[in-house]
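Researcher: Let's run the pair from yesterday's discussion. Sequence first, then tokens, for each.
Model: Starting with the first of the pair.
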Amino acid sequence: MTERPDWTFLTSHGFVLIAVAKSPDATVRELAGAVGLTERQAHRVLADLADAGYILRERVGRRNHYRVNSDVPMRHPSFAHHQVGDLLSALDAR
């Protein structure tokens, strides 16, 4: 098992956003596992991202399909002139 680092460059929100961009049909359990969060934490992060307009959630049968809204500006004032799609492109998350 790989030891988890004390800190990372991205937050849980950034990691979940990238995971959604890569796997828009993933379940919350799959997204949580991909980024090292509990399902409860992943639910909370997904809700934050949806409430802020960074992801759109669509119910398809019994599952959710997620879509990243790439046109939303980054949240930090220093990067507000960039869109979230710029981050995803830079990290090759699409």
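Model: Moving on to the second of the pair.
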Amino acid sequence: MVSSDTMAGVPAIRPATAPRFGAPEDYGARLADADFWAPYAAAALHRHGFPAEDLTAGFSGTYPTLLAGDVVVKLFGWFPGWAESYAAERAANALVAACPGLCPAVRATGRLYDRPAPWPYLIFTRLRGTAWRDVELPPRRRYAGAADLGRALRGVHALAGSGAGLLPDWLATARPGAAARHHKWGILPPALVDEIDEFLDGFAPLAPVLVHADVTEDHVFVTPTGELDGIIDWADAMRTDPYYELGALHLGCFAGDRSLLRAFVEGYGWPVDDGFARHAMQVALMHRFDLFAGVRDLTARAGGLAELSTLLWSII
């Protein structure tokens, strides 16, 4: 059963009820189910005059994303924090539009329903590159791509703006609960977790800048020859210490490869001194999400957090 309405003068057909889920596991099981989300994405597309044939699932980290020709539809709802994520993605894309070609252009925005479950959406131009995770590049090309990414993110970090709509600065309140979060995640060995509070002593955040905050191997897109095509998923963007950008980038996108990190900081022009590794490790330990699952082999053999920071972050 469907109902119809009109937004911006364009008739739209949509399912009669908004998506509902009994538990996070049910929502997660549907994230990449293009057939389930297609009627909702089609309603958004038709509303704005975009064709909705051959809808396929795109990358869905937290929110459902569908591909339709040269555009992408991203739907926000149900999952805790959806309203903040939607606002942050809109705000970040408005700011980063000053860096042409870096993030997908927003083509349209709206909502499918009235409150309390409006299910807002964003329609983006589709990037034509390949996610870093899936691209096959020789080492020289990968290093060039990392340097290219460094230059691009330096431009993002230099953008001015109030930060209205972005997520709040996570690091402003992250330190007291850092050890407890790592105990819950269970990735770092308990002996290392026990060192966290002491290791964070003396931490002094740098002046906040605009950060993407989740530059993973799924969010960086490159051309077949390794040039940066763009960065997707700005829903975690905030203004905070620039080192916050390095956590997901190095431990996720670069899989802890310090040669790629070195290429990135050289492309960026990031000042690297004797305190670089410790500060990067401190910020990574306070991140919103666990970053260490992909480098378990290093965490298992490190004799302490100081040694682990050297193994992960030392590039001088």
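Researcher: Give me one sentence on the second I can quote.
Model: Confidence is low (pLDDT under 50) at residues 1-11.
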